[in-house]
Amino acid sequence: MATDVKRTLEKQQYKIYGDHAAVKLCHWMKQSLLHGRVCYKEEFYGIRSHRCLQMTPVVNQCTHNCLFCWRVQGFESEEVQWKEPEEILDRCIQEQRKLVSGFGGDERCSREMWQESREPRHVAISLSGEPTMYPYLGDFIDVCHRRGMSTFLVTNGTFPEVLEKLDPLPTQLYVTVAAPTEEIYKRLCVPRIPDGWERLNRTLELLPSLDTRTVIRHTLVKDWNIGWEGDYAKLDAKADPTFVEPKGYVFVGDSRRRMTIDNMPSPAMVREFSERLGRKLGMQVLMERRDSRVALLGRQGSKTSLF
Q1: How far is Cα 100 from Cα 21, in angstroms, rounded to an integer?
Q2: Could you tell me if 138 and 166 are in contact, meaning their C-beta atoms sit under 8 angstroms apart?
Q3: Rounded distance, CA 75 to CA 20, Å?
Q4: Which of 48, 134, 191, 297 could form a disulfide with 57 if both were Cys (CB 3.0 to 4.6 A apart)?
Q5: What's the CA gap between 207 and 200, in Å, rounded?
Q6: What pairs with residue 270 in β-bridges?
Q7: CA 33 to chain centre
Q8: Cα angle at 195 between 159 and 252, to 5 degrees?
Q9: What are the respective helix, strand and coil percentages of the chain, to the nearest 5?
Q10: Nearest Cα to 141, choosing from 120, 125, 165?
Q11: What percent of the chain has pLDDT over 90?
Q12: Among the residues of 81-181, which ranges form H helices?
């Protein structure tokens, strides 16, 4: 990893292990501990925000340079000395305990919740980079599951061959579909590989055969990719996901170099898009969190919570 990229990540409170794995406290972890405000994933799926480990096994490698991405984009081709899965999980938990250490003395944080935050029960494999580029991803998920931890894997879908062979599968698999057409995909996701759109579509076709909960996430950027519900519906129909999550872009992090605050859709825009898409898919809006600009689409009667 380039020294300047590593320095930037560390300034942003990433804790890096080796030159490819990282952990960082989520905004909602802090909100949960200090103010009782939880992540939408707790309301939608039952994940306890203060017991979530937000990490990545591949912090600085990706096949996209998405304009809306809030992460640091210093991607480069390099030889990586891959760390073992158990080592990565142990170090991420160790670093998370350091990151939450100060909350233990804060009168706004209950002692019980603080103690629980030191023992994560959920791993969000989503912090930065493209996690399916880690060659031992299945082994990592297996370690998490053997320790009684649930897993959410977020991928841009450009490695269908990895997902096809992944064993075990994560508790829930997210695939980001941030463009309704190949033209918009190339302009907005800025793929670093020539066949990214074809690879994403192969992933969508693969999803119905995977024996786990699946979610398609549409990251909505005003003036870029909102609308085209018919095109999105065709992509979603291929995947036949358990849920669809339309989620509005937020003007934070490095995305501020490329976007403006006007590119953030309002909660009403996200809701309207969700309702229009839902009608085409035979789904309905099961839940929404307006402060997070996100809605959950599913079939009537679907069980959303994991627990």
Answers
A1: 19
A2: yes
A3: 11
A4: 134
A5: 11
A6: none
A7: 21
A8: 70
A9: 45, 15, 40
A10: 125
A11: 87
A12: 85-99, 111-117, 137-146, 160-165
Question: Does residue 168 have a cis peptide bond before it, meaning omega lies within 30 degrees of 0?
Answer: yes
The string over 75-110, giving b where at least 16 C-beta atoms fall within 10 Å of a residue's C-beta and e elsewhere, is: beeeebebbebeebbebbbebbeebbeebeeeeebe
Tokens 């307006």 appear where? 290
- What's the predicted TM-score (pTM) here? 0.95
List domains and CATH numbers for the chain: 3-298 (3.20.20.70)
- Name the residue with tokens 């560390």: 10
Q: Residue 173 and residue 213: Cα distance in Å, rounded?
A: 6
Token reading at 223: 């003036």
Asked if 262 and 223 touch (Cβ cutoff 8 Å), the reply is: yes
pLDDT band at 77, cuts 50/70/90? low
- The residue behind tokens 């969190």 is 289
Q: Model confidence over 15-66: pLDDT tens digits?
A: 999 889 999 999 999 999 999 999 999 999 999 999 999 999 999 889 999 9
For the record, the structure tokens of 24 come out as: 């960082």
